[in-house]
Amino acid sequence: MKHSRQKPVLAQALGDDWRNVAPLVRAHYGLHPDSREELELNGQMSVYYPRPAILLLAFARLLGGLVLIREDNVRVRVKNSSRPGKAAMFWHRTFHVSGKKKPIIFRSRMEYVGGSEVVEYIGASERFSMGIKMNISQHEGEIRFESTGYVLKIGRIELPIPGHLLLGRATIFEKALDDATIAMGFSITHLVWGTIYTYKGTFGAPISRQT
Fold first, then answer.
1. Is residue 1 pLDDT above 50, yes or no?
2. Where are the domains of the chain?
3. Exposed / middle / buried, residue 155 (Cβ in 10 Å: 0-12, 13-18, 19+)
4. What's the CATH number for 9-209?
5. Least enclosed by CB within 10 Å: which of 101, 107, 160, 165?
6. 30 Cβ partners below 8 Å, 6+ apart?
7. What is the pLDDT of residues 73-86, one digit of tens each?
């Protein structure tokens, strides 16, 4: 009997609204969990945070998340993949910063947790990581993520953390500018300190890779 493929993580969260997402964005998020698929995107991003915010952002970087640079037009390669036995979409972001010999790596994985929510866990470890729980919606082909809190994962234990007690409220958007270009943006807004982190940029169409 042929094993039926799981729906992509965002397709599970969006339900019938998945069909209304722009085709280019669907191609980016179309990897099937518990399989062996891979794609790559290449583009440029601008990253910014106010210097005092390093005190809040350092913990996330220690876990392997975020990228603590203040640069425009950084060359970025994003590799997304799915893995057999794993109900997640994996991310491997490589930032090539001018003047730095070694690129900066930012890894994460995204899992569906029910309803219209996903969790994106940062870092390479699956036993100890911090996750952002987000609600997903679709608006005229654009997808939007809005955080509803954080979780600290220690082995099989997950501890919920209200957003205002950690980094603050995170929002993400991704949309197609045309048939070959994706635009995306990410920001974190703290209840007291305001916007403490942003990155935004554009990418070419996803390229499927055989694994």
1. no
2. 9-209
3. exposed
4. 2.40.128.20
5. 101
6. 8, 11
7. 999 999 999 999 99
